[in-house]
Design brief:
Layout (H helix, E strand, L loop, with lengths): L5 H14 L3 H24 L18
């Protein structure tokens, strides 16, 4: 028998907790998750703005 990996185990525990939420708590959780996903999307979109600095000449600044 295989042991459940750590991430799956955490997801299962979180899901079990969510199952006990009220409808209002689920709505609040979904709103927070949507906000977080939107922020992550904006950060991902901004990455291209910094691609000019991804070169050997500017690598000295990576250690700052």
């Amino acid at each position: 028998m295989f042991a459940m990996s750590q991430p799956e185990n955490r997801v299962d525990r979180i899901f079990q907790e969510i199952e006990s939420f009220t409808a209002e708590e689920i709505r609040a959780l979904l709103m927070k998750m949507a906000d977080r996903i939107e922020v992550l999307g904006w950060l991902k979109a901004a990455e291209i703005s910094f691609s000019d600095w991804d070169n050997p000449e500017d690598s000295a600044y990576d250690r700052i």
